[in-house]
């Protein structure tokens, strides 16, 4: 009896151990079932594409998210390869990445590639995956998920564009600032140059005024000297000639000569010349005879031209003096210059 009791105790302990292990297995199975339910619920509700592929890149499983992401039904995607939806420009890059991944046998994340939806629209996805190994540790496929980052990429592109525009605007602004600085510098230099030239011009004007004043003084001195010389050296002989008994014609020429000589030293001719530079020498001669009271016929005889020519000169003189259409005597107007 004593030998049987230890055997029974050991058997009871083994049974208890098996019961505990069974309970642990049942608990683990329940937890596994719950995890599977949660995972399946997550797969069925997420917009990400959960997938499994074999060693050739053929889809063996696709979650419901394929409808949202690519517009395909699950059964349309199963049997196709991951390269069928990649845009042509990125197929070779994707194949190279797949080959390298099969050699490395390491999980990956953040792989970005552009796919084509069923409706032809472009969608940008970020792919994460992990290798599937059999009991012997041999690679049999991959599982993972594709996340739609199209909006994020668009936002990044817009942000990059905005940043580039801002940088470009800053460059343009800096360029404009530099150009304005150059313009301001040129304006300051121009202002200084104008100040210098204005000062030089002012000095030149001052010197010119002094010269003009001296010239006017010299002119008056010369006029006074000429007038004095005429009175001393010419007029005595004219007086003697006038008393020598001249003929009528000689007396006329003598009167004109004496009058003209007086006009040379009088302000009339100088004033007439300075005020109306447009008069010709002949018109000046006719104007002087008109001022002396000579008639058209007398002027024609003295100048040896026709009366019509004299009338023409008279009209020209009136026009140049600005009295052509005025009721004013040419002789009276000419006397105003004396």
From TrEMBL:
Q: Does the keyword Coiled coil apply?
A: yes
**Residue intervals of the PAS domain:** 35-90
Q: Does the record carry Phosphoprotein as a key word?
A: yes
Reactions mediated catalytically: ATP + protein L-histidine = ADP + protein N-phospho-L-histidine
Locate the HTH luxR-type domain: which residues? 272-338
Q: Which GO terms describe its molecular function?
A: DNA binding; protein histidine kinase activity
One GO BP on record is: regulation of DNA-templated transcription
List where this protein forms a coiled coil: 8-45, 152-193
All copies of domain PAC, residue ranges: 109-161
Q: Which InterPro entries does the UniProt record give?
A: PAC, PAS, PAS-assoc_C, PAS-like_dom_sf, PAS_fold, Sensor_kinase/Photoreceptor, Sig_transdc_resp-reg_C-effctor, Tscrpt_reg_LuxR_C
Instruction: Return the broad EC class.
Output: transferase
List the keywords (alphabetical). Coiled coil, Kinase, Phosphoprotein, Transferase
Documented EC number(s): 2.7.13.3
Q: Which CDD domains match?
A: LuxR_C_like, PAS
Q: Which NCBIfam families match?
A: sensory_box
> Any idea what this protein is called?
histidine kinase
């Amino acid at each position: 009896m004593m030998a049987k009791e230890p055997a029974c105790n050991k058997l009871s302990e083994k049974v208890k151990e098996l019961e505990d292990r069974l309970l642990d297995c049942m608990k683990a199975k329940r937890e596994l079932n719950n995890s599977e339910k949660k995972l399946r619920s997550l797969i069925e509700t997420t917009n990400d594409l959960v997938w499994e592929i074999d060693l050739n890149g053929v889809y063996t499983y696709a979650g419901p998210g394929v409808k949202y992401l690519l517009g395909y039904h699950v059964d349309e995607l199963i049997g196709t390869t991951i390269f069928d939806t990649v845009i042509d420009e990125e197929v070779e890059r994707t194949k190279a990445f797949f080959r390298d991944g099969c050699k490395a046998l390491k999980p990956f994340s953040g792989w970005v590639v552009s796919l084509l939806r069923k409706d032809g629209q472009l969608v940008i996805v970020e792919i994460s995956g992990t290798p599937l190994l059999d009991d012997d540790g041999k690679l049999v496929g991959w599982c993972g998920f594709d996340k739609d980052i199209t909006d994020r990429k668009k936002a990044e592109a817009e942000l990059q564009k905005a940043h580039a525009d801002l940088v470009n605007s800053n460059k343009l602004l800096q360029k404009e600032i530099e150009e304005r600085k150059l313009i301001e510098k040129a304006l300051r230099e121009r202002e200084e140059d104008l100040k210098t030239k204005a000062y030089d011009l002012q000095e030149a004007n001052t010197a010119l005024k002094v010269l003009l004043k001296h010239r006017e003084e010299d002119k008056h001195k010369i006029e006074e000297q000429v007038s004095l010389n005429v009175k001393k050296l010419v007029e005595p002989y004219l007086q003697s000639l006038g008393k020598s008994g001249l003929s009528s014609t000689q007396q006329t020429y003598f009167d004109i000569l004496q009058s003209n000589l007086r006009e040379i030293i009088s302000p009339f001719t100088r004033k007439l010349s300075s005020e109306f530079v447009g008069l010709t020498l002949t018109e000046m001669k006719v104007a002087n005879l008109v001022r002396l009271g000579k008639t058209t016929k007398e002027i024609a005889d003295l100048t040896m031209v026709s009366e019509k020519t004299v009338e023409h000169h008279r009209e020209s003189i009136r026009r140049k003096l600005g009295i052509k259409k005025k009721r004013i005597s040419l002789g009276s107007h000419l006397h105003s210059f004396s």
